[in-house]
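lol ok so funny story. i was supposed to be doing the assay writeup but got distracted and ended up predicting the structure for this chain instead. priorities right. anyway since i did it might as well share w the group, maybe its usefull for someone
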Amino acid sequence: MSSHAPIAQPQLTPEERRAYLRAFADRMLLKLAAMDDPEDLPGVERAVRAASVVERLYSRCDRAERGDDDPRKLRAERARNESEAIRAQVSLADTLKWGEERRRNLGPWWDAAAEKAAAPAAVSPAAAKPVETPQMPKVAPKTEPKTETETAPKTETANPPKVAPEVTYVDYTDAIAAWRVELGLDPPPP
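and the output, tada:
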């Protein structure tokens, strides 16, 4: 363990960081220019690597000052957007293909329905008849139970037999047959 106390690093603003980075790149460029020309291949490789590092530092500073995004992030985002667009196109093509297959499978019914939708609706005589609506049966209101003193003696006639409520049935057979004829569907089974 070292006996040195950690030195607090001052928090730099982005502008100050860019200024330090540019000053460092300037110093590197001056040292690189002061070096003798390389005479062998490893010396040339070192000089080229140092020059590319200085160039990257300058381009990063310039890009940060202009407010441009990192080109790698831009390429990644562009690739992601392109892949999402391709997925959306494939999904749309699948949906359209499914819709076309469905329409083809429906055949003449689809064409007849499209023609009926485009034409003004004509009212058939069967559909023009008023339709009876079922009515809710009327139920007698509940009365409060009587006390023991008020109750009458129990006899067999006190409990009348239960009668089924009156139900009204509506026959839609003719209306359905007329609608099937209007839509051009197969005739109803006999």
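Residues 62 and 68 are 9 Å apart (CA to CA). The chain has six helices and no strands.
back to the writeup now i swear
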